[in-house]
Write a structure and sequence with these properties.
globular, 19 strands, FAD binding, Alpha-Beta Plaits, Uridine Diphospho-n-acetylenolpyruvylglucosamine Reductase, domain 3, alpha+beta, 4 domains, eight-stranded antiparallel sheet, Uridine Diphospho-n-acetylenolpyruvylglucosamine Reductase, domain 2, about 475 residues, 18 helices
Length: about 475
């Protein structure tokens, strides 16, 4: 608290009240590190406004006193984008009190929610009126809509519904000077100039603070079929998704690729998970088809597609879930990978994307380079094949020293990012840049793109007070 002027503190309290301030060092702790304890900072104050108007008033005061702000939602990110720096001079602005569902418009197929709303609560509000909000993440029980927007979250249903850019029609944003831009329009067509909402989606709080959004709703899903499929290679996964897409069209909702190393970790560390097959296989995919019709012939379609793939040698084994419990068990295998890897000691996590057609060559090339340079590392590759997004993680060799492995982080990252760039890919598919990839972006993004980004940042935030040290 001593880093802040007394007048500022009094004026902040006049805006948000004592309940909207966290000053005690012990209570602050959960706001100062991410859920993995990978990033940690210090803050002079945590402010928890309860309305857009309070957010705007806090931002105006920070602008007046030249105090940097770090917006924060559920704090479930993986790149440290919502964590303050180590100076102890920044203010964390938490949106977790702004949880309102402002409107559900079933005729327009939209839902308007505040930025602090938990993703699962938005899903449930849609379900209550017979609709679907399709964004689905492992952290959906704790991540917030504001954070999902700030990082342009993707998740497991991108194949059919797209990421947050595709799911958003309008935004309400507090700008760095405290003005409120009310872009909460539920329009699917608005060709009146620049589409400003896309500046803020994916900007990680560096251009303004998203306080509310109009999101798209879809008809409720009434039929689902899930299969666990064994493959001889990553190339087979690309072949298989082509077969299933040609047959099933947009009924294909999920297509998740997992290496055997990923599955081994889950079987070792996640309770109640068991291998669906008696034999091991190099690769697996989890396929989900869904339909709005209650009796859609999804089993028959998926069986037909897998049968064709078996005949062509693309698939080596497959099992279709026959109950909701089996569906949950198969998804637990996929969703347990990140947690399971944490039990194996330090791991270096990379969220990259390449063209779908390049996935097999990327994996083969990068695996070989890493194993040549860092013998014994364990590569945990999994992700959303249909949109080219791989979570390409590296665990330390068995029995190796943690500190020595962590010291190789930059060298390992260099190998992965060089390969990603070589395949015309991106070093961040859905996690953002935050503080983790800011330096790498300088090297791997086009200089002109970075210059344009800096020009936009300077125009909207000339003082550089919005989440400094992130993205740029």
């Amino acid at each position: 608290m001593s880093a802040l002027p007394d007048n500022f503190i009094r004026e902040i309290e006049a805006v948000v009240g004592a309940v909207g301030m966290v000053c005690d060092a012990e209570r602050m702790q959960s706001y100062l590190s991410d859920w993995r304890n990978a990033y940690r900072g210090e803050a002079a104050l945590v402010v928890r406004p309860a309305s857009t108007e309070e957010v705007a008033a806090v931002v105006r005061l920070c602008n007046q006193y030249d105090i940097a702000l770090v917006p924060q939602g559920g704090n479930t990110g993986l790149c440290g984008g919502s964590i303050p720096d180590a100076s102890g001079t920044q203010v964390v602005l938490s949106l977790t009190r702004m949880t309102g569902i402002r409107e559900v418009d079933t005729e327009n197929e939209t839902i308007t929610v505040e930025a602090g709303a938990i993703l699962q609560a938005v899903q449930e509000a849609a379900a209550e009126v017979g609709r679907l909000f399709p964004l689905s993440l492992g952290a959906e029980g704790s991540c917030t809509v504001g954070g999902n927007l700030a990082t342009n979250a993707g998740g497991t249903a991108v194949l059919r519904y797209g990421n947050m850019r595709d799911l958003t029609l309008g935004l309400e944003v507090v700008l760095p000077d405290g003005q409120i831009w009310n872009g909460l329009r539920g329009l699917r067509k608005d060709n009146t100039g620049y589409d400003l909402k896309h500046l803020f989606i994916g900007s990680e709080g560096t251009l303004g603070i998203i306080t509310a959004a109009v999101l798209k709703l879809y008809p409720a899903v009434r039929s689902v079929t899930t299969a666990w499929v064994a493959l001889p290679s990553a190339h087979a996964a690309v072949q298989l998704i082509g077969i299933i897409r040609s047959l099933c069209g947009d009924r294909l909702t999920g297509f998740e690729l997992m290496s055997r190393q990923s599955v081994d970790f889950v079987l070792r560390h996640v309770g109640a998970c068991s291998d669906p097959f008696s034999e091991t296989h190099p690769w697996y995919v989890l396929i989900e088809l869904s339909d709005t019709q209650p009796d859609a012939p999804l089993n028959e379609l998926l069986e037909q597609g897998i049968g064709e793939a078996l005949e062509r040698g693309v698939v080596t084994d497959a099992v279709l879930a026959s109950s909701e419990a089996q569906v949950a068990a198969l998804w637990a295998m996929r969703e347990g990978i990140s947690e399971a890897q944490n039990h194996e000691g330090p791991s270096l996590k990379h969220d990259i994307s390449v063209p779908v057609s390049c996935i097999p060559a990327f994996i083969q090339t990068t695996d070989q380079r890493l194993l040549d340079q860092f013998p014994g590392v364990r590569i945990v590759a999994y992700g959303h094949v249909g949109d080219g997004n791989l979570h390409y993680n590296v665990s330390k060799p068995v029995g190796s020293d943690d500190t020595a492995f962590k010291a190789q982080q930059d060298a390992i990252m260099h190998v992965i990012y060089e390969a990603t760039t070589g395949f015309q890919g991106s070093i961040s598919a859905e996690h953002g840049l935050g503080q983790a990839k800011r330096a790498a972006a300088k090297h791997y993004k086009d200089p002109l793109e970075l210059a344009l980004m800096r020009a936009i940042k300077t125009t909207l935030d000339p003082k550089g007070l919005m989440n400094p040290g992130k993205v740029l």
